[in-house]
Design brief:
With about 190 residues, the chain is an all-alpha fold. The protein is about 80% helix and about 0% strand. The chain is built from 7 helices and no strands. The radius of gyration is 22 Å and the shape is globular. The C terminus is likely disordered.
């Protein structure tokens, strides 16, 4: 996929918005690398997903991802238990916690299948701005769960990020009808 200068500029504007939200200080903490690691991992996941979705269905990809993630979590759980870092006691969890875990797993699986299908049908650079909708969900969850409401500077950064994503979406939308208009015009002449 080719990414032109306008999309790159929109990504740069989105980065400015992200820096406005994060407001990195002069003091460096190792925890500041965690969002960068998460973003890089997610981006690599989307690249793999885009390539895998060329030859496989979203459901097949989801099943494979679930199997690999389950194996990884089992190995990690046993490793953490053996080192004494974590002492899991799954038998002591109430049924409501199990129901929430199963429900969140089902919701995540359905979401992943839809994401895989979206990447199979459209370019990754066109879908990327929709990832910004996560900001709205994270803000709502932060408020509902933790009572944390963003300040004015955070809202400014969020607005910048959303505007850059919206620009890409509107730009792609305005380019598509122009290439289809002559064909649509010809079709209307045929019907007359």
């Amino acid at each position: 996929e080719t990414v032109g200068p306008r999309r790159l500029a929109a990504v740069g504007v989105g980065l400015v918005g992200a820096l406005t939200v994060i407001r990195p200080g002069a003091e460096f903490e190792i925890a500041a690398l965690l969002p960068l690691l998460a973003a890089a991992s997610y981006a690599l996941n989307m690249i793999v997903l885009r390539r895998a979705s060329r030859t496989r269905s979203g459901l097949t990809i989801q099943c494979g991802a679930t199997i690999y993630a389950s194996i990884g979590m089992i190995v990690l759980s046993f490793g953490l238990r053996e080192t004494g870092v974590v002492t899991p006691a799954p038998g002591t969890l109430p049924a409501s916690v199990w129901a929430l875990m199963l429900g969140s797993g089902a919701f995540a699986a359905a979401s992943y299948v839809l994401i895989a299908e979206a990447f199979r049908r459209a370019e990754a650079s066109l879908l990327a701005p929709f990832q910004y909708l996560e900001i709205i969900g994270a803000t709502a969850a932060g408020f509902l769960v933790f009572g944390d409401f963003p300040d004015a500077m955070t809202w400014t950064g969020i607005a910048i990020i959303l505007a850059s994503g919206l620009y890409v979406v509107l730009r792609e939308r305005s380019r598509a009808p122009a290439s289809l208009e002559p064909m649509g015009h010809r079709l209307s002449l045929i019907h007359i």
